[in-house]
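Make up an example, fold above all:
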Amino acid sequence: MTPARKRARTYDSAKIRAAVLAQFGNVREGVRALSEEQLARPARLGDWSVRELATHITMSLDVVSRHLDLAAPAAKELGLLEWPFGTASRSGKIADGTRALAAAHPDLDALYAGVGARITDHLATAPDDRLLGVPAGAMTLADYLVTRTVELVVHTDDLNRAAGTDIPLDRQALAACTRLLADAIAVKAPGASTEVRIPPYAVVQCVEGPRHTRGTPPNVVETDPLTWIRLATGRTEWKAALDEAKVSASGERADLGGLLPLMG
C-alpha cells in the first residue's frame, strides 16, 4: 500500500488554524520567560542550544507566511500522509538556516512577535486549497498546517525537556500531531494484524498478518500521546519505552521497534 492509496483522515480546518496559533502563542510566552542560562543550555538536538531550538520554532511557522507571499505552484506534489517520511533528508539545510537566523535575531521576543503577526494575518484570509511550494513538495495549506502541529508539539516538548520549562500543549494541536503520526505507521507498515492505541486521540491498525475483526485483538500496542510522539520522532527508543513501562505491547506482531522512528 502506498501513501497515495491510504485514505487520509480529515481535519477540521478552523480547529487546526486555531491550534497552530494557540501553540505558537504558548511557546512565545514560555520563551519570553527563559533566562540567558536556560537559553545557553544544550537542546539535545545535535549541537543546537536552547536559543537555537527556540529560533527554529519560529521557522516552522514563518515558512507558511513566506510561501503564501510567493506565487502558488502549478500542481499538488505531496499528500499529508507522505510528509512524515521526507523530513530527514532536509535536516542539514534546516540546521544551517536555524543557526543563521539565531545569529541574526538575538531578540527572540521581537522575532516571535513578527512571525506571529505575519501568520495571523495570512491565516485570516488564505483559503485551505491554496498550494504552498514548501521544501517537502507542493502541498495544500490545509495539509501543511496539520504538519505544523507536529513541528510545534514536538519542539515544545524538546524545549520543555531541555530548558526545564512546562510550556503547555494545546489539546487540538496535540491531537492532530498524535493522529498524523499514528496514521503514518499504518502507511509504513500496512496491514490489520496489530492495533496501536493512543488514547484519547487515535487507534490505527497496521502490520501484515491475519486480519482481526471481533473481540480483543491478539496484537495490541498502547501508549500515551507524548510517548508515541517521542517514539515516532526518535526522541525515545522502543526498548527504553518498554523498559520504563511507557508503552505496553502484547502479541507476536506487537514489536514496533523495527518500524520506529517514523521521522528523522
Residues 141-163 form the longest helix (23 residues). Residues 223 and 246 are 6 Å apart (CA to CA). The beta strands are 131-132, 139-140, 194-198, 202-206, 220-223, 247-250.
